[in-house]
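name: query_chain
kind: protein
chains: 1
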Amino acid sequence: MNNPYFFGYGSLVNAKTHVYSSTHPAKLSGWRRVWRHNSGAPQAFLSVTPDADSNIDGLIAEVPNADWKALDLRESGYFRNALPATSLVHGAGGVDVHMYQVHLGNDAPPSTDQPILLSYLDVVVQGYLEVFGEVGAARFFDTTDGWDTPILNDRSAPIYPRSQTLSAAQSTFVDDHLSSLGAQLFSR
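structure:
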């Protein structure tokens, strides 16, 4: 029996943030990324919403022995569900793939009180740059909704627990895309 995989479309694309080493780039059809707030959390989360006209890039990674305990704990603001094989293209062969989404009952648009953390966004974009290059990272911005959400600039004192140090070029890439989107950054 094959081990299952997860499909990551946010921070899980950045392999520096987890221990799952058997990874493959993947494309999921029929979904779009969106910034959401889970009423129990102080910041916005990336989630997904059905969208027949959209495709998103991501990463699948093997979960050895179907041991979901640590990953479910990490993704505690989300629920995990199985993806239909027909919606996902990847190079791992015939494997079962699961995806995390924000709990629908607690789902609400983010607000100033629940901003996007720049340290979290940095991790996500760094992963996209490393897996998909600049074109793929730009596609991340294009296939994500909710950029009107305020972004807390915590880059110099990261709040996100799995924050990473970005190169100057990676930071500039993030900053340039946020500027072109007219994103509102603020500091506390």
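note: The mean pLDDT is 93.
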